[in-house]
Amino acid sequence: MKKILLIIMISSPFFFLSGCWGTKEIQSQTYITGVGLDYSEGEFIVYIQALNFANIAKQEGASALMEAPPILIGEAKGKTIQAALSKLEQKSALPHYYGHVETILLSENVIKEQMKSVIEFIGQNSLLRYNIWLFGTEQDIKEILTSESFFNFSSLYTIIHDPKTLTNNNYFIPIEKYNKFISTYYQPVGSQIIPSLEVKKTNYSEDEKKKNIAVVTGGFVLSQKQYKGWVNKKDLVGLKWLSNKATNIPLFLFEEKVSVIIKKPKIMIKVVNGYKPSYHLIVHANAVLTQNEKDISIDKIKKELEIKIKNELLKTMDKSEEIKADLLNISENTYRYHLKKWDESAINSIDKGSLEHIEVRIQIEQNINYKH
Fold first, then answer.
1. CATH homologous superfamily for the domain 247-372
2. Region for residue 266 given its phi and psi (left: phi exceeds 0; alpha: psi -120 to 50; beta: otherwise)
């Protein structure tokens, strides 16, 4: 009896380590990494992007560069998003797995007309996480999903799947995850911006072959669950001064003869009483001087820098007034802390005159070192 118990004790770990019943090996599923959604003539057009993780693992472990791992794109139509996905799954050689989806890409038509369906789809699919990235595009979704990375790396190394790496080092407009978007979508004030992607092939080449790189060109604006339009990133330049994620902001002055990097700007928003709320914005930041070809004085650079930041905030406020949406989200402060003083209509009355005062305080560090 003791010998039997001993055999069972020794063999049981191997029994459990041999694998769980019903689990699938990595090569026996289609791992979806991105989902694209379009809407036309009463039907959803659903795209899936899938990558071969075995190929990616081989590539990352190789000493020499290999060919770019293939990108599998699926496409189907349906009256609902789930119906289109089901049609795709019925024609797939391998079952689909959605637990690795990192990005959802929406067409302008979907953002304009079908956000309710998108929100329901994400909320009802247990495998789709709330920390996925949310992008939009005016281009062909398939073209965005098949955009290229550098050096034949997989699509996981593009802005579609890894925007944080880019924005940490060169912040321009906020790129937020879905949980941030949905947390403010139902608010009666403020706005949400879904960054827009476009494939460009003018800036980079490999072996004289132009690279099709996906870049952020602006954003689709929603306010009070209504679509307000697309805004070029040039008109969204003021957003970065109100973001706590903007750690490095490069700026160029005096016809690009002077370069500075703004470090972790801090914003203070003061609400001013009146028949409707108005605001004082105070921006504090340190700047590192990285280029000064004309030996311009620090005081002159500081003054020009403060003017530029102020003008960027005003430029975005001009666009807010044009599209009737609070792009800077300064009304959110009033809604959260001063709701008893004004009704929602007054709080939403945002125009350029709402910025009663802008004060910018910049401290410049002269940090130009030359190699000897």
1. Nutrient germinant receptor protein C, domain 3 (3.30.300.210)
2. beta
